[in-house]
Amino acid sequence: MNEYQKIISLIDQYGLRRKDRHRKLVYQRFYIYYKLKKHCTTLTEIGELLDVNHTTVIHGINMHYRYWKQKDQVYLNAINPLMHELNHEYSNELTLHVATKRTGIYGEIKISGVIDKQILDNIKEFMTIPEICEKLSAIVDK
Q1: DSSP secondary-structure letter at 53?
Q2: In the chain, what are the domain boundaries?
Q3: How far, in Å, CA of 99 to CA of 108, rounded?
Q4: Residue 39 has what pLDDT?
Q5: In percent, how much of the chain has pLDDT > 90?
Q6: Please, are residues 50 and 60 in contact by the beta-carbon 8 Å criterion?
Q7: Which of 105, 95, 41, 36 is nearest to 64 (CA)?
Q8: Which of 65, 90, 93, 97 has the lowest CB atom count within 10 Å?
Q9: Domain 3-85's class?
Q10: What is the mean pLDDT of residues 132-136?
Q11: Pairing outcome for strands 91-99 and 126-127
């Protein structure tokens, strides 16, 4: 089952087509709108899948970006089960072990925030400070 099919099955599993305004379900719909849009699904198609207007989808995607950027804990907790189902596990803190090449100085860098599992897989446990900066700047630029 590919990710798109998983997202479609989650819509039914979590009852996201229901006309329900409970915060948790609203937030989960925002996340599903976002994920479907990432799969190049049109706003109209997303609206038809969830029985909403395309402008509702636009609003939901915008709200997802806002809550994501703010690292809103209520939002992140609401969408966590969906992220887990889609194999995107997130962590609130990452500790990187670093060393400088010239001096060989060893240290740790702690990064707090929402961290995608793919990012964690791409960052090696031992990296130089410039390598970490390069990886992190690439992530932030996305």
Answers
A1: -
A2: 3-85, 91-141
A3: 9
A4: 86
A5: 46
A6: no
A7: 36
A8: 93
A9: mainly alpha
A10: 70
A11: parallel
What is the structure's pLDDT at 94?
A: 55
Burial 82-93 (b: 16+ CB within 10 A, else e): bbeeeeeebeee
| Average per-residue pLDDT for the chain | 79
State yes or no: pLDDT of 82 exceeds 80: yes
Q: Which residues of 46-62 are buried (b: 16+ CB within 10 A; e: fewer)?
A: bbebbebeeebbeebbe
Q: How far is CA 88 from CA 31, 54, 56, 76, 106, in A?
A: 13, 26, 25, 12, 30
Token representation of residue 134: 């390069």
Model confidence, pTM:
0.63
